[in-house]
Amino acid sequence: MSSSELDREQAYVSSLYARLDQMREQAGAQLGRVLAQSGGTHQDRSQRDAFAAAGYGQIAEYDAMENGLVFGRLQFGEDEVHYIGRRGLFEDSAERRQLLMDWRAPAARPFYLATAAAPEGVRVRRHIRTTGRTVTGFDDEILDLAAVDTTGHDTVTGESVLLASLNASRTGRMGDIVETIQAEQDRIIRHDVRGVLVVQGGPGTGKTAVALHRAAYLLYTHRRELTTRGVLVVGPNPTFLGYIGRVLPSLGETSALLATVGDLFPGVTATRDETPEAAAVKGSLAMAEVIADAVRDRQWVPEESLEVTIERDTYHLDAAFCERVREQARRSLRPHNRARPIVADMVVDELARQIAERIGGNFFADEPNLLEEGDRAVIRGELREDPGVTAALDELWPVLTPQGLLEDLYQWEDLLESAAPGLTGEQRAALKRAPGGGWSAADVPLLDEAAELIGEDEAVLAERARKRREQQARVAYAQGVLDIAAGSESYEFEDIESEVLQAFNLIDADELAGRFEEEESLTVAERAARDRTWLFGHIIVDEAQELSAMTWRLLMRRCPGRSMTVVGDVAQTGDAAGTTSWAEVFEPYVQDRWHLEHLTVNYRTPAEIMAVAGDVLSTLDPDLAPPASVRENGVLPWASRVDDLGELPGLVAAERAETGDGRLAVIAPTALLARVAELLPDAAVDGDLESPVVVLDVKRAKGLEFDTVVLVEPEDVVAESPRGLSDLYVALTRATQRLGVVHTGPLPEVLARLK
Ligand SMILES: Nc1ncnc2c1ncn2[C@@H]1O[C@H](COP(=O)(O)OP(=O)(O)OP(=O)(O)O)[C@@H](O)[C@H]1O
Q1: Tens of pLDDT along 17-71?
Q2: Which end of the chain is less congested by CB atoms within 10 angstroms, N or C?
Q3: CA 656 – ligand 1 centroid, Å
Q4: What residues pair up with 139 in beta bridges, in sequence order?
């Protein structure tokens, strides 16, 4: 590598950072001016708050660009050169010449796709390596072979940057792969936003990485639609969300809500564990029918009549009348709680009729009733407030809550039997539980299903309508603010460089209105997290094979546009309610309008370890082929039979020494977690992946990776779950460098290669 070439790159990279500094300073100065203003009307203050929030956001975005600002350079022809980086940068001039191209821009695509066979006009693709702001080196790929001698050096190093990144020690947090996205991954990342895209790929093929980069790409390409509606990213557990949490911010994106299925019912924190049997029943589509029946069962009709006491007088609503009321309310097709006013109207009318008859009836049968229409209206008004009437309504058509409905259903055998005649006795027994004790992730889709059928209480609805009206007024106001800002651009912003703080470019009226709310600092993601009925612009699901049919129903409701990216591996399914067929999942919702892509190269696990995992996969299903490892590392995985797990700490310490500054995970059967944690007091057991040594079971290790994995008692891992072999496959494929297996009994036959 010629040093003059390196100096030239350094000079250019330094000029990009200088431009970034300049933009940050200008944004800071503008923010300072906004913050220095005081007084004025409420509207002035709101406007200032919105500008200040936009200013802070802009500065945070510039800060996020600091690391690895630029990483690539494409040379087309003799002297057309484009630099590629995390975000675009433009010259501070009237021409606004592009200095740095955003990796997501269409023109940056050849950086990922061009090959010697199809160079797309690229002569040289350069990967620029930096530490902080210093260029430490570069690797060139000569795609137009005629150009070999013109670049000043001649190393063609297509995979070296990729391999360097794959071999690096893990930190416990996933990093972005924007510098080394591979062609098969790029095609998925930039796939059309419309429809359901399913990405099937073995362990380590980059499904998570690709899904997150796709989120960033979609937010860039469809910014307007997606930043208002937001993108939901669903992951398997909180540890996993912590692991992937930095990837999108490092790509400059903050409009995504990261959540587990257990987070998707606001107000409920799903902490309870579920038996595999209960999870399987709760996840099955049959539960939709069960819940619908459970709601219908609460719409009651007495056998003969219902007694209603009003101010010490007794009236009767007979069965035929109650049946009519129920039919009418059901025919409205309104959710249960919202149909209650229909019941209330009919009951009040009937009781008013009976009262009128009693007090206004004339002794002389042929004379008309003495009560006038006005008197009857008064009676009806009073009846609406009467506790006796409310009690009758509570019998016939009680106000329900999703939580109450499910607790009752789980607790009372007769309710369950009536609502779930299709379930077997064993399935019903799996559901049975006493109230209290919290909710599980498997309950969340059922609560959501119930909430859909029950609907909100009238009072809650009225409150929401009020808020919506206020919000609309705020949008109109915010639009006015934006119009004023745009109109007065030359006056107010004349000394501010164009892309820094023009609020009308950075935010739209909806977003600005959101900031004017009392909860004005809430982002779209935060607002979406609070609202069960929020409709997302796009949904990304990771480890999607684990989701139950009931969870898919919930997600489909949240994304009526059916714009989804679903990544997973049907060979890794561990959850009893999970899926082993993508067609089964999607056909009910989109028929055949879903698109399947495959990822085939394993970037995580070296070939030596993958050979062991491959044996497990072929036992699981001889038709499944393991993904091909992109590298070998010369380290053979080992198995050690011990008399007692007391020997585990010694073996872990030896591996720890080999792991350097990387991360080591001890993966154990769930039943042994406490024992293993006791043996390894320094290891983190709470999912703190930045700790040098962590102890986890397979469920929690899903989707994660570690430099070294020590797997304890593989036989128990297999025996512990109906999908035990899949769990073993997952455990074996978590390592990026080293794998050891510690066992007290005989090694399972499927691991014979380790003998
Ligand atoms: N193009 C790439 N460049 C650099 N690293 C990559 C690339 N693709 C994937 N990786 C790395 O490979 C590892 C595995 O990726 P990822 O976790 O996304 O795989 P996965 O398919 O989701 O695996 P699993 O199914 O086991 O959860 C990660 O460290 C990721 O950063």
Answers
A1: 999 999 999 999 988 888 888 777 777 777 777 788 778 878 888 888 888 899 9
A2: C
A3: 23
A4: 127
Q: Using a 6 Å cutoff on CB, does residue 209 contact ligand 1?
A: yes
State if residue 51 touches ligand 1 by the CB under 6 angstroms criterion. no
CA–CA distance, 202 with 571 (Å, rounded to integer): 8
Against a cut of 0.80, is the pTM above it? Answer: yes
Atom of ligand 1 nearest to the CA of 211: 18
* Test site for ligand 1: of 604, 696, 734, most ligand atoms within 8 A of the Cβ: 604
- Cα(78)–Cα(75) distance, integer angstroms: 7
Report the alpha-carbon distance of residue 396 to residue 318 in Å, rounded: 12
* Residue among 95, 222, 177, 36 nearest 601 (CA): 177
The tokens describing 622, both together, are: 């001889």
Which one, of 114, 167, 117, lies nearest residue 140 by Cα? 114
* HEC sequence for 392-455: HHHHHCCCCCHHHHHHHHHHCHHHHHHHCCCCCHHHHHHHCCCCCCCEECCCHHHHHHHHHHHC
Task: Please state, in angstroms and rounded to a whole number, the distance separating the CA atoms of residues 444 and 268.
Answer: 8
605 vs 626: CA distance, rounded Å: 11
From 339, 336, 335, 373, select the one nearest 353 (Cα to Cα). 373
Flag whether the ipTM exceeds 0.95. Answer: yes
CA of 227 relative to ligand 1 center, distance in Å: 26
